[in-house]
């Protein structure tokens, strides 16, 4: 028997020798001589069993000649048949950092589907963007900062059974229109409110960046408050970031109280 109907696969053949013989068979011993096809790789064999690897599709005959110490012999044979495995059914499955496919685009991709041989698995995948290898080599790839234009993503797959196949897809990336921003100031008795008002004609705003006295604030909201306490001074640089990661124009404000 074999573990799969497709080559390559492993298999075995077992010889059941008589047990619980009557007394007059006392002292009878058996030995087995195996005849294995040259296309099979023998893993191990004994007088009762042979274990082998089938490397090529086809039908072969495995024979065992069983003899006893009284000169009797019997030939037992079994035909082992395997088929060529179907082609792998794989394709590149991509995900993108924004639905409008705008630059700078981040692409995350992997191979999805199934292998043709039920026992085969994907071993390695090498990814190429426009003919250049993307490091490191992993089953999944992530490429950031893809600019406008039509790009080709290629996956070179090698399986555990050393089958190699290539898969390609085109990635059309649109040019991104940067957002435009301005600041609205609202004066109150003790504070000043700054609202960063932005428009993005080909997407939406994702966050806002506030640089206060040379340090970028972890706060990403669209407005901040500035203290009007005596002696306080601040240089504030603000800009917006759209959903494709593009920055708007920078707006710089100076305040001294």
Give a structural overview.
This protein is mostly beta strands. Helix content is 0%, strand content 60%. The chain has no helices and 21 strands. It has a 4-stranded mixed beta sheet with strand order 1-7-6-3, with no helix packed on it. Strands 11-10-13-14 form a 4-stranded antiparallel beta sheet, with no helix packed on it. The protein is rod-shaped and about 115 Å long.
Give the class from helix and strand content and strand pairing. mainly beta
Q: Report Rg.
A: 36 Å
Order of helices and strands: EEEEEEEEEEEEEEEEEEEEE
Low-confidence stretches: none
- Report the total helices: 0
The neighbouring-strand order within the major sheet is 1-7-6-3
Strand element count? 21
Shape: rod-shaped
- Estimate what percentage of residues fall within beta strands: over 45%
Overall average pLDDT:
91
Give the biggest beta sheet: 4 strands, mixed
Q: Helical amount among residues, as a percent range?
A: under 10%
End-to-end separation:
90 Å
What's a quick, concise take on this entry?
It contains no helices and 21 strands. It is mainly β and 257 residues long. The chain is rod-shaped and about 115 Å long.
